[in-house]
Amino acid sequence: MVQLTRDDLKKVQPKIKAGQQYVKVGMSTCGIAAGAQEVFELFTKEIKQHDLNVVVTKTGCLGMCHAEPLVEVSVEGLPSVIYGRVNGEVAHRIIEEHVCGKRLVNDHIFDLPIRR
User: What share of the chain is helix, strand, coil (3-state, %, to 5)?
Assistant: First the structure.
């Protein structure tokens, strides 16, 4: 089995440019166990269906296992926000309200204890 290097991972990871809108889904082991893969697939599908200029990508641990699956959303005109306990219904609300409607989904926002 070939060991991947940091450079190998950079080649397959979508590039997020400064100022670009994105949705990052936490795909650590606890996130995957909590349903992050399904959430990632739903965001990818919804972004494509709405024809939005938003990059959907995977990221590692965000440090709040109790709130998995975690999703970071950054769109123009709003602060970058971490949403927790995201399931299909919440993901749909994030697309409709946050990404398209430019309104935060307040009942699912989590604050990181320490910003990295």
Answer: 40, 15, 45
Q: Across-strand partners of 22?
A: 55, 74
Chain centroid to Cα 63, Å, comes to 14
> How many domains are there within the chain?
1
Tens-place pLDDT, residues 23-47: 999 999 999 999 999 999 999 999 9
Strand partners, 25: 58, 71
Is the whole-model pTM more than 0.85?
no
The runs of H, that is alpha helices, within 1-116 are: 6-12, 29-33, 36-49, 88-93
Answer yes or no: is 103 within a domain: yes
